[in-house]
Amino acid sequence: MNPLPRWAEIGLIPLINLTLALLVSGVVIALIGEDPIRALNVMIQGAFVYPGSLGYTLYYTTNFIFTGLAVAVAFHAMLFNIGGEGQAMLGGLGVALVCIALDPFLPGFLVILAAIGGAALFGAAWAFIPGWLQAYRGSHIVITTIMFNFIASGVMVWLLSGVMMSSGQGSPQTRQFAPEALMPKIHDILGAVGIQTANSPLNLSFLLALLACVGVWVLIWRTKFGYALRAMGHSEPAAAYAGIPVKRMIVVAMAISGALAGCMALNEILGVQHKLVLNFSAGYGFTGIAVALMGRNHPVGIVLASLLFGALFQGGAELDFEFKSITREMVLVIQGLIILFSGALAYMFTPWLARILVQRRAANA
Amino acid sequence: MIETWVDILRILDGTLRLATPLILCAMAGLVSERSGVIDIGLEGKLLIGAFAAASVAVLTGSPWLGLAAAIVASVVFSLIHGFACITHRGEQIISGVAVNILASGLTVVIGIALFRQGGQTPPMPPDARFRPIEWPLTETLGDVPVLGPLYAELISGHNLLVYVALASVVLVWWMLFRTTFGLRVRAVGEAPAAVDSAGVSVTWLRYRGVMIAGVLCGIAGAYLSIAHGAGFFREMSAGKGFIALAAMILGNWRPGIALLACLLFGFLETVTPRLQGLELPLIGEAPTALIPMLPYIFTVILLAGFFGRAIPPRALGTPYVKEH
Questions:
Q1: Among A141, A329, A331, A353, the residue to mutate for chain B (most B Cβ within 10 A)
Q2: Fewer CB within 10 Å, N- or C-terminus of chain A?
């Protein structure tokens, strides 16, 4: 069925698709009367070169690693979790509840540990329900997770403009968390050991995200559970026939996926905002789909794709300053095109490429 | 007494106005999904339609050109979706997500390039919009008790696209259930292999399905920006495409029931501001913040089979691979 060699499948095809997405983005920029090459240059400078920019890029990368891993874990079981947005919001709620309840009493690092648990638990719970409904009631997971995104956002508005709103404030947000209970910033840690770096929102969540990558790799490729998960992803009837408890696996896979998405809130809420605000998930959950697609659902690929999207987001912010008529929404266009070309049209070039490669092999033989 | 009657009529009137984009989008989704192509890109098509309508109406001053532009823009997005899902058998959900994200980016990027107003369209002359149509004899009948206000408030006085939305329900029903084309569309959503072996092109049928969806979403977009509203602003579709998707599922992929679901959601949206601060027996102050979530909660409960059962077309989401 798949005649492509592995290097072409995981290297060349994504590269072609990415190039195509960037080319079309360039055409869009040219059509609105700006110079695409200059825009690319500004984005690269803005993402990696300006002081502190690398920190910002890695800070965005952190969000994408979490949401990308979330999509990937579910996808290995052929489950489409597009509820990352909602699960991240609930993760934020978990962080906020833990911090508000515990930060007057416990030392900072204990609060942080508990908050990590809170983020994972709340995210997991919000994905558990669609998982359970899919496994035991036959609901379509895509539709349920979409609906859960909207329900989550309604719940957040309700709580933050109601019981959780900090008193004496007009805007929908909680009170600030205690300063000791915040995720340490990387530039502070590096500063403490004598390395001076520019300030950026990059915090310890980044390391947690990398740890999560290792964890997911071990889980999917080195455990019995992961084997069962992948078997299920290939063929559910075969997996059931082999004695794998398919229904329970669906629920557990979704819960793990939701926990990962929920952990995105650690970076945003515990690392940067220091209070629960509305809409902090800002589309990162949806971008996670693109990240997982580009990264071929493998942790290494996901880190690389997250870096790409982190650079896009940070570099895109720079577009706002440098151009009159390009704003950071250009990033959404690029993102949409990447999802289109490397997701929906992923195999557009496969037959064509296969023909070329086969011809060359025949010529060499 | 008359006060209450007029009040009820006003609520129903508001219901119809707010349900209009939902009805058009739900019918769009229905045709696409009946042909076997999942359409979670309703939201994006609605948004790009609204943007195209407002931009062209502002630039040309003609609501008709605005409507045409909305339809063209939305159909182009349908064709992208079709190209990915039908021609290249790509994952339909992913393609839908791409359509949505692309629309929310492009509308702002092009909007700023065209008008330099932060993604909004400039103020629109009244003639560039679809205006309310006063039906004949509204004045004369206005004094007739009960029926007079009914005629004036609810039946007369809407813009053209409201009536188009209602007509679309009948048209879609008639097309799907009373024409050969509709029979084939439904067949291709249930058993494409059978349609193929009858010598009818699965691909072309599905393309027509998604294009009809594009036309309807385009009309819905024009309604938002140049009929109900007066101009485009970023993210103005605000989840309506997804509410329409929910209505379509609640309607079990049937035009009549989907219409009722749309009207129900329109009704909820209309009464929410009126319930603000209202004391209810037992509950206390009405939890108005929770009402916007009801469409989604209903959909989840229905899909879970706790009341009724939602039965999607059998081949929904499965690309068709022709046997050789």
A1: A329
A2: N
Please give the pLDDT value at position B283.
Answer: 67
Segments of chain A with pLDDT less than 50 = 1
Per-residue pLDDT of B208-233, as tens digits, reads: 999 999 999 999 999 999 999 999 99
- DSSP codes joined into one string, A299-351: HHHHHHHHHHHHHHHHHHHHHHHH-SS--THHHHHHHHHHHIIIIITTTTTHH
Residues of B in contact with A161 (CB under 8 A): 289
Cα separation, A22 vs A15, whole angstroms: 10
CB contacts of A334 in chain B (<8 Å) are: 105
Q: What are B274's two structure tokens? A: 């009126």
**Token pair recorded at residue A273:** 């905002």
153-172 of A, contacting B, C-beta below 8 A = 154-155, 157-158, 161-162
- Phi/psi for B194 (5° steps) reads -65, -40
Distances in Å between the Cα of A94 and the Cα atoms of A123, A166, A251, B22 are 8, 17, 20, 34
Question: Between residues 226 and 285 of chain A, which touch chain B (CB distance below 8 Å)?
Answer: 283
Dihedral angle computed from the Cα positions of residues B186, B191, B195 and B198, in that order, rounded to the nearest 10 degrees: -130
Contacts of A283 in chain B (CB under 8 A): 101
Average pLDDT over residues B12-36: 96
Alpha-carbon distance of A132 to A253, in angstroms, equals 10
Maximal CA-CA distance, chain B: 71
Check if A347 contacts B (Cβ < 8 Å). yes
Distance CA B85, CA A363 (A): 35
Tell me which residue in A137, A155, A345 faces B304 most closely, judged by beta carbons.
A137
To probe the interface with A, which of B55, B101, B106 has the most A CB atoms within 10 Å? Answer: B101
Task: Please report the ipTM that was assigned to this predicted complex.
Answer: 0.90
pLDDT at A3: 65
Closest by alpha carbon to B268, among B243, B248, B285?
Answer: B243
- Residue from the list A138, A293, A333 with its beta carbon closest to the beta carbon of B102: A333
Are B238 and B229 contacting, i.e. CB atoms less than 8 angstroms apart?
no
Q: Do A137 and B40 touch (CB under 8 A)?
A: no
Is residue B74 predicted with pLDDT exceeding 90?
yes
For residues B263 and B152, the model is more confident at B263
A78 interfacial to chain B (CB closer than 8 Å): no
